[in-house]
Amino acid sequence: MSTARTVLETEEHQALRAAVAALGKRYGRDYMTTVVREGKHTDELWAEAAKLGYLGVNLPEEYGGGGGGMAELSIVLEELGAAGSPLLMMIVSPAICGTVIARFGAEEQKRRWLPGLADGTLTMAFGITEPDAGSNSHRITTTARRDGDDWLLTGRKVFVSGVDIADATLIVGRTEDARSGKLKPCLFIVPRDAEGFGRNQIDMELQAPEKQFELVLDDVRLPADALVGDEDAGLLQLFAGLNPERIMTAAFGIGMGRFALAKAVEYARTRQVWKAPIGSHQAIAHPLAAAHIELELARLMMQKAARLYDEGDDIGAGEAANMAKYAAGEACVKAVDQAVHTLGGNGLTSEYGLASLITASRVARIAPVSREMILNYVSHQSLGLPKSY
User: Fold this and answer.
1) Which long-range CB contacts under 8 A does 60-66 form with residues at least 24 apart?
2) Can you give the pTM of this predicted structure?
3) How far apart are CA 246 and CA 231, in angstroms?
4) For residues 140 and 133, what is the distance between their CA atoms, to the nearest angstrom?
5) How far from 122 is each of 56, 237, 389, CA to CA, in Å?
6) Per-residue pLDDT tens over the stretch 332-389
7) Residue 114 phi, psi dihedral angles, 5° rounding
8) Distance between CA atoms of 359 and 351, rounded to whole angstroms?
9) How many whole angstroms from its chain centre is CA 1?
10) Parallel, antiparallel, or unpaired: how do β-strands 124-127 and 168-176 relate?
């Protein structure tokens, strides 16, 4: 680990990095490719990471978590990714759902879900994206209406990760404001066996253990306590989950980029075509150096976002988390592309495990929000430019 990587982190953070890196190394890319090939899930790695306290490191100690925050959880995902074995559901289960419940959930909801999310025995999915809304959360049409003391939830969601292994899904719906009649976002915990809650797997070119689903909610009846937090909190609660999602997506991208770059650097050090290793040639060395710089810069913004979020600065964290996600997505795609290019034909073989990352790296650019929407956010919120929509 380079000195530059650690100067902004505490000794505890450095120790966490080293410990998680050791865990990731024991599993590695071969484990992930085997899981995908056999159509299985990352149960062994998930269980061991949970047993060691890594999955719940961000959750409150009184509910079985580590008492840390996004700074610690992002380290875990980044280091697993750098070892070639990232756990995508970390973004969803402890980061989004765990954070929202810990911050806004009722005491009973915290006792019901947080210990299990922390020790890995419970998993939650997160449903926000809709077929006609895309990245525009203001166009969500999934609605919740009261029926006595219950809620009835109706709508559709797409690209929801891991619903097949999740005990429940945290669904973003909208309720009608009694005063204005306008729809406002609300969050509901929907158990996997709820009547009217259907799922269809989406065929993806992406090779990953976590499957993607379309959800159909047909008057799903939920008790009053399925609502998380205050019905009137709206966007505050929603973005309490989306900022961690962006921070963790940045960690996902940085880890993947580091894995690809390490493969390319190792190859460039040893691969000899003429009289010297190809890494001695600037046409090979300089693009790899630039990729390293961009990954390091993305990590700095991710660290800033995590610190702001953990300190309770939601507005500051929102800007930094979007920037971190953007920077990490760009850096990841460029690092993977350059790594494949460095290996030439070998970069497309199964032996080196890089070709599948060409598709996977695009995720950090596209999800959970497109880079164009982040540029919209920065141009409007940071620069004060007028909206075009």
Assistant:
1) 60/102, 60/110, 60/114, 63/102, 63/110, 63/111, 63/114, 63/115, 63/118, 64/114, 64/115, 64/118, 64/119, 65/98, 65/102, 65/114, 65/118, 66/118
2) 0.95
3) 24
4) 6
5) 11, 22, 40
6) 999 999 999 999 999 999 999 999 999 999 999 999 999 999 999 999 999 999 998 7
7) -65, -45
8) 17
9) 24
10) parallel
